[in-house]
RNA sequence: GUGGGCGUAGCUCAGUUGGUUAGAGCGCCAGGUUGUGGUCCUGGAGGUCGCGGGUUCGACCCCCGUCGCUCACCCCA
């Protein structure tokens, strides 16, 4: 038997997350869930795959995600599906299908799939937390969504995250702007980078997103979106920025921020982590999508959302040196039983039913071995049952946090164990 | 899709100009006299040196291929 090379492993770009590392995931999700609830969002669960049209129409054919990164497949009924590459399109599809009363606010946690070469902070399957709010174009909604995101990053301990913000305008003013931009690019197209020299006309806005010096130089000299917004869009944007400022959230105006999805209108934003040295420094982002519901066959309905990558968030926590654990998953007690009887079976059942996280050793190991296991488990107390305790109907409690050898070891009447343990645990 | 780096015990890594039974630390298991962890001491288990082929008297070490990991470009979470 050759055990050194397992026949199967997680697919390229995917990862298993085991305990104890997974406790950080639980913590991140729990923090987000609690915050989302406070802001009035309800959990939504949608399928991980959708008719490919949901993403084609929603995200846009010209986007990188749709044009070259989707996991597309046909099922046995010859229907064409795609694994979701991001969270928003599915939620809006669900909104259109169910027509819940507006304003409608939903949060989600989901895997997302993109076929690309893995790299630091970039995977083929990653996980996103996010919210979507539909049914209002009120800038207050923009402020709420962005504030939720900001407070979330604060809550998980991040300090060096900046908020970049921009407005894409609505159809008309953006349309006019795109024409201006296209005219500018037509004049200077020859100076663009290799990729965009010929390809810019498909979607001129993409050039703004390009980080190559050639494209940056050309676009910097050209027209900028914020200067060409209509009055409504300008006011909307101003109110968002002012509202954020009123609650102490500083947003950096970033005129070239257009983001990779076609559905964005008006407010767009991105959270970048300065602690990450790599190019993958965006921990979250989002924006308004006032035409998306229509594009997916629903009534005209404004909306705005935010998404955050869990893996990347954890990378940032690491890079920032955030030391506090979001969630500890260690047992409260560890039952050490050397009698070999069924006493520990009954005690463990009582403890667990009483809300106490309790573990034990298996295989009838020596007391020393069981104590070592108790120590390694991280349990606060060891509950000892040996022949003496068994005969006396008692349990010996040992505080594993104490470093003293000659510490006091109270014995507790068997019938009082659960109550005593619970008392001691809530004490601190 | 393109390019760079790397693949030696569960983990992090050593391994001298190719030379006989491949090492360490951590982790794991068991002991250190009669029921007690975390420190210390002793011992033990665990590797076809990613896989395949080639060069050689001989390969963990050199060459080719392949798979995988990783980083970068592009883009994003």
Short description:
This protein has 428 residues and is an alpha+beta fold. Helix content is 38%, strand content 20%. It has two domains: 22-170 and 230-319, BirA Bifunctional Protein, domain 2, CATH 3.30.930; 333-427, Rossmann fold, CATH 3.40.50.800.
Which labels suit this protein?
single chain; 428 residues; alpha+beta; BirA Bifunctional Protein, domain 2; Rossmann fold; eight-stranded mixed beta sheet; 38% helix; elongated; RNA-binding
Write up this protein.
By secondary structure, the chain is an alpha+beta fold. It has 2 domains: 22-170 and 230-319, BirA Bifunctional Protein, domain 2; 333-427, 3-Layer(aba) Sandwich (Rossmann fold). It is built from 16 helices and 16 strands. The protein has helices spanning 22-38, 52-59, 64-68, 88-98, 139-155, 171-188, 194-199, 205-209, 213-220, 231-246, 292-295, 310-319, 343-353, 367-377, 387-392, 417-427, and strands spanning 42-43, 49-51, 72-74, 80-83, 104-113, 125-134, 161-167, 251-253, 265-273, 282-288, 303-309, 333-337, 358-360, 381-385, 394-399, 411-413. The strands form 3 sheets. It has an 8-stranded mixed sheet, sandwiched between helices. A 5-stranded mixed sheet has the order 13-12-14-15-16, sandwiched between helices. β12 (333-337), α13 and β13 (358-360) form a beta-alpha-beta unit. The radius of gyration is 28 Å and the shape is elongated. The protein starts with 21 loop residues before the first helix and ends with a helix.
